[in-house]
Design brief:
Strands 1, 2, 3, 4, 5, 6, 7, 8, 9 and 10 form a ten-stranded mixed sheet that branches. Helix 2 (43-59) crosses helix 12 (264-279). Helices cover 48% and strands 19% of the residues. By secondary structure, it is of the alpha/beta class.
């Protein structure tokens, strides 16, 4: 009796393994949809389109990009969380989607469990941000911004890519370290907020360097400081914010996930292809370097561990700063 049960269990396991292996061999068998949790034109969108094009070329399948901005990046994540677990629906999202939302929002508002409903595949890229302002703001650098904010507490506005996004949390970090009070204006992504900086509708923003260099060089906005540890050669006249606010750095990262329950062989096939793309010298030279992107290629296990570590770190910050959603 016991031997029969063992044989049945072994047979069932063998069938399961054969099935998942077959799924990986035939994957992808239809159009792949990459859900981006922000509006078109931001870094999430740029990364998704760069990776998506290469995946389409490698696999001979169409890759469609769908921008699901708004809702603090929750809307897009929910779409992927509820998709069939077959790897054909992917998520490209900023750090906040993975590590901030689980702390900032109650489970009934979030409507997805980051650990159960999403399967991490790999990190994609990380990038430093810059503190920028519209040309009409009466401040030319971070020092003058702090002085101005002290004279006008709560009056200077800043754009975000949604509640809990890096442009939001990194300005909160600036407020705390510089001891100033600013006013957030929330958008569905970085691109529309950046457009409103250029148009003069809002005053400030912390946004990825890759989105700043061209409009800054064209004098459509001004860089008050770069939030990297050191000055960057692409903006040689811009000081670091830390020269005014010691220790201040601001950046973000973007990662790839799929629906929880997707067979591991499928996850590993996607992981392998994306890592190959990120390590390709031509892709690095023509896509990564001009955008100032740093690769975050990792195994699913490494990326999952990183998410858990970052979640714990930010949860501590959120508790200590008593951050309240507005």
């Amino acid at each position: 009796m016991e031997n029969t049960m063992i044989k049945r269990a072994a047979l069932s396991l063998g069938v399961l393994l054969a099935t998942t292996a077959a799924q990986a061999q035939t994957f992808p068998s239809k159009t792949i949809t990459i859900i981006v949790t922000a509006a078109a034109g931001g870094v999430s969108d740029v990364v998704a389109r760069g990776i998506g094009q290469r995946l389409s070329e490698a696999w001979g399948q169409q890759v469609v990009i769908e921008n699901k901005g708004g809702g603090a990046h929750i809307i897009g994540a929910q779409v992927v969380a509820k998709a069939p677990p077959d790897g054909h629906t992917l998520l490209v999202a900023e750090a906040g989607t993975y590590v901030l939302n689980p702390t900032l929002y109650p489970k009934d508002k979030l409507a997805y469990d980051t650990e159960k409903d999403l399967a991490p595949i790999t990190g994609l890229v990380r990038i430093n941000q810059a503190l920028i302002a519209n040309n009409g703001l009466a401040a030319q650098n971070a020092r003058e911004l702090v002085d101005l904010a002290n004279k006008k507490p709560g009056e200077i506005t800043y754009g975000t890519a949604g509640v809990g996004s890096a442009p939001h949390m990194n300005i909160i970090k600036f407020e705390n370290m510089a001891k100033v009070k600013l006013q957030p204006i929330h958008y569905r992504g970085a691109a529309p907020a950046l457009n409103d900086i250029i148009a003069g509708h809002i005053n400030l923003m912390s946004v990825s360097l890759s989105l700043v260099i061209q409009p800054a060089n064209e004098k459509r906005l001004k860089v008050l400081g770069v939030s990297s540890p050191k000055r960057v050669k692409e903006l040689p006249n811009s000081p670091t914010v830390s020269e005014t606010v010691p220790g201040y750095e601001a950046g973000t990262w973007f990662g790839l996930a799929t629906t929880g329950g997707t067979p591991r062989d499928v996850v590993m096939k996607i992981n392998g292809e994306v890592k190959k793309i990120l390590s390709d010298p031509t892709f690095q030279e023509k896509f990564m370097a001009p955008q100032l992107f740093e690769s975050m290629a990792a195994t699913p296990e490494e990326f999952s561990s990183y998410i858990k570590s970052e979640t714990a770190t930010w949860a501590k910050v959120i508790r200590e700063q008593k951050l309240v959603l507005e």
